[in-house]
Amino acid sequence: MKDIFELDFVSFKKSVPEILQKSNLAGLIKNRARILLKPNLTTVMKPPCTTPVELIEETVKFCQNYSKAEIIVAEGSGGCDTLKAFKELEYEKLVEKYKIKLIDLNREERIIKENPRARALKKVKLPKIIFDSFFINIPVLKQHDEGILTCATKNLFGLYLNEGLIKKFMPNWWNKSELHFKYGVQQSVFDLNLYRPSDFVLVDASIGQLGNEIHGQPCLPPVNKLIAGFDNLAVDRFCAPLLDLDPDQIPYLN
């Protein structure tokens, strides 16, 4: 398995810088011009359904300690208006405190990408900014009704936007629905990871969520881990057993 870093969770303040040091993120970001952090804010529900703002804050602090790059926190929420998620989940406080930007990927300029290896999304419009940044993927660890697991690979759904909303965006309740009903979740996860693999992954498995990606239950006892790596697929294959899932039974991981 490709390099995976695992750490027992104590607190975000202590554990985040420890695992980022362990995985040598400092060396990777030293000379970068822009760093983009992508949490999972698919809705306005509190963690463990969404990425805790405390985790993002500690990652921002680490990046600013080791790089002069512009830092952006970016998400394209699927189940709510991203701007509402930023507000209700307290991400807005990071802007003034750390002089960073919050960007709604659903409202960003898009460019056309094509890949003959894609299973369903042979041609797709994706946010230009994700190709111009060092991309740090920061998902939460959850079970998913259709995807079985939602972690690093599935978190790329936030890059997509229903075709009809690109010309005239409206913060509809479910603006990624084409990936479910038109293209299929398993194929779409695979394809999006072809177009823009993450440069680095940090998984919040401090709690974990079972049963459903939105209305599931927190893991009891909590998983109590932070996981880091450089490859979405490898990270997810490592993380699946933490929720008693077999990665060999998850189509997009094979």
Describe the structure.
It is a single chain. The chain has 254 residues and is of the alpha/beta class. It has a single domain (4-253), classed as Rossmann fold, CATH 3.40.50.11440. The protein is 28% helix and 24% strand. It is built from nine helices and twelve strands. The strands form two sheets. Strands 1, 2, 3, 4, 7, 8, 9, 10, 11 and 12 form a ten-stranded mixed beta sheet that branches. The protein has a two-stranded antiparallel sheet with strand order 5-6. A hairpin with a 6-residue loop joins strand 10 (200-210) and strand 11. Helix 1 (12-22) packs across helix 3 (53-66). It is globular and about 45 Å long. The mean pLDDT is 95. It comes from Candidatus Shapirobacteria bacterium CG03_land_8_20_14_0_80_40_19. Pfam families: DUF362. InterPro entries: DUF362 (IPR007160). This is DUF362 domain-containing protein. Residues 35-240 form the DUF362 domain.
